[in-house]
Amino acid sequence: MIQPATKRYNCIIVEDEPIAADILENFISRDPELNLVGKCADAVYASSLLSIHDVDLMFLDLHLPVVKGFDFLRNVKNPPFVIVTTAYHQYAVEGYELDIADYLMKPIPYQRFLTAIGKFKHLMEADDALLEVYERDFIFMNSGKKKVKIILQDIFYIESLREYIHIHTKTETFTFKMPISKMEEILNPKMFARIHKSYIISRSKIEVKSANIIQINGKQLPVGRTYKPLIEL
């Protein structure tokens, strides 16, 4: 009997105290679902790690050299879940305002670490669900701890950019971390069509169409060769 694959969550440690970093690394190594992909001591290196790896969880110390932890976090676009580590109580409120997963005080007891990881996994499992469909009129998409309601009729098109999608609607553009293939699976093919590896369009919003181009809301989108047979032109 084939056993289901163990979930693996990629994480990084951003910590300038070697002993504290080693303790976290040891704790992480005890959990088969956690995969440490990088360890660094400053925000510049951390930015590099985030650009190289698909990171699910970041352990972030607040008192980093040059750029402090919260200042770094405010400037990260689409950050992973964050567990803050610090020896200072006074930053707790500010941390929660930044929507962190948990806040660990140094020295970190192992049991407290386990509690924080439990919170993180709960958030990840909620994120794995990603979409909830209600009568096909709207969807809820998970973004960290928040759920964003999107009316299906308001969607013009969905654009993929690496591991993110941009949902272009009548009111604004929403960005979520998920593959476009998962979005395609949940949408009603009578309402939406995949026209390219990077685009899903709303059929009702088509303004101009040809064999190679579909125009929606003034935007010309390419039709991929392999998708042409799937589209009613």
TrEMBL record:
Designated name of the protein: DNA-binding response regulator
PROSITE patterns xref list: HTH_LYTTR, RESPONSE_REGULATORY
UniProt xrefs under SMART domains: LytTR, REC
Molecular functions (GO terms): DNA binding
Modified residues (4-aspartylphosphate): 61
A Pfam family this chain is assigned to: LytTR
Entry keyword Magnesium: no
Domain of life of the native organism: Bacteria
Organism encoding this protein: Chryseobacterium cucumeris
Domain HTH LytTR-type: 139-207
Protein keywords: DNA-binding, Phosphoprotein
InterPro entries the UniProt entry points to: 2C-system_Tx_regulators (IPR051271), CheY-like_superfamily (IPR011006), LytTR_DNA-bd_dom (IPR007492), Sig_transdc_resp-reg_receiver (IPR001789)
